[in-house]
Amino acid sequence: MPTLYISITNHGFGHVTRTASILAELQQRSPDTKLIIATTAPRWLLEEYLEGNFIYHPRVFDVGVIQIDSLQVDREATFAAWQQIRDQQADLIAAEVKFLQANQVDLIFGDIPPMIGEIAKVAKIPCWMAGNFGWDFIYRDWGGKFIALADWLAESYSHCDRLFRLPFAEPMHCFPHRQDVGLTGAKPKYAPEYLREKFNLDSDRPTALLTFGGLSLQSIPYQNLANFPDWQFITFDRSAPDLPNLTKANCDRLRPVDLMVICDRLVTKPGYGTLAEALRVGIPIVCLTREGFLEAENLISGVKNYAQHLIISPQEFYEGDWSFLSGSFQAPAAAQQLEMHGETTITQAIWDYLH
């Protein structure tokens, strides 16, 4: 039985969902492949994407960015968490190498914890990764004491044997072997008619999906929905108020990509997973800007190039009357098409290696 070990960064949900879309296709192609998924992301999130069996292996090898919510970061808490991991690195590597060898792992795949490169080197197992940025890229932009942290992580990434570089990427020069691929993401599961009947939604009314990732936002101004009584809004926010034109879609393992097929627009923050799936579905995007997280600039540039879009500030979202919903979308700037099936390319490569 070929064995694939997957390590996913412990930061939000986007890294998990885009990797799970690759693993879901791999399970369809190669159901005999044993999957070991190392992450502290909730198991239920993986199960929303993976219908086959997998081993859930909760481990922390990186920090990502400690966040207050989906837009605000806590740099000091992030640095302190990294210091703790660095102090434990030798023990973490030794324990995981022992685990990999005991499970006869054939290939390591990461999105995109730097330490996995170090673990793979000691275990003498090939290490592949996929992503549109490395954590060194984020921290280097913060300057000061984060420069040394970025240098350390870049060295760890240099042990990666093959990087599948996703769209909207930074150069990722610390990875020695890079291959550009298309967007990754899940496919919608349900027909629009089924979803409209399930949630009693009218196909003739404008419909907006509000989704901001696993961390959500602080104080979403739901009172603005009263300004649009003829609209229908959909949210995954369990704490949202009960409003006549707001539907809560937290049921039946539904995901944002499943609801996009019945929406006229998406209102979201810069996150690769949600934006990639929106681009694949073809839904117009209203995207908030985000300060202090350099990846956001690349993602917003991608939205401007390839989607009908409106880019709004957090102030317009939090303090305005949401008149942006009635605004006209900007047309995509790029003339060329974006390759949309990166998960197929990555899955084929993994299958070829394991078989």
Write the layout of secondary structure elements.
Elements: E1 3-8, H1 14-29, E2 34-38, H2 43-47, E3 55-57, H3 75-102, E4 107-111, H4 115-123, E5 127-131, H5 135-140, H6 146-157, E6 162-165, E7 178-180, H7 192-199, E8 207-210, E9 232-235, E10 246-248, H8 256-259, E11 265-268, H9 272-281, E12 285-288, H10 295-306, E13 309-312, H11 314-319, H12 342-354
Parallel strand pairs: 1-2, 1-4, 2-3, 4-5, 5-6, 6-7, 8-9, 8-11, 9-10, 11-12, 12-13
Helix pairs in contact: 1-12, 3-4
Give structural notes.
The protein is α/β, with parallel strands linked by helices and 355 residues long. 36% of the residues lie in helices and 15% in strands. It has helices at residues 14-29, 43-47, 75-102, 115-123, 135-140, 146-157, 192-199, 256-259, 272-281, 295-306, 314-319, 342-354, and strands at 3-8, 34-38, 55-57, 107-111, 127-131, 162-165, 178-180, 207-210, 232-235, 246-248, 265-268, 285-288, 309-312. The strands form 2 sheets. Strands 3-2-1-4-5-6-7 form a 7-stranded parallel β-sheet, with helices on both faces. A 6-stranded parallel β-sheet has the order 10-9-8-11-12-13. Helix 1 (14-29) crosses helix 12. The longest helix has 28 residues, at 75-102. It is globular, with a radius of gyration of 20 Å. The model has no long low-confidence stretch (mean pLDDT 94).
The poorly predicted ranges are none
Q: Determine the structural class based on helices, strands and strand pairing.
A: alpha/beta
Summed over residues and divided by their number, the pLDDT gives a mean of 94
Question: How much helical structure, as a percent, in the residues?
Answer: 25-40%
Number of helices: 12
N-to-C SSE series?
EHEHEHEHEHHEEHEEEHEHEHEHH
Strand percentage lies at 15-25%
User: How are strands sequenced across the largest beta sheet?
Assistant: 3-2-1-4-5-6-7
* Number of beta strands: 13
Specify the overall morphology.
globular
Cα-based radius of gyration, to the nearest Å: 20 Å
Strand count, sense and barrel status of the largest sheet are: 7 strands, parallel
First-to-last CA distance: 10 Å
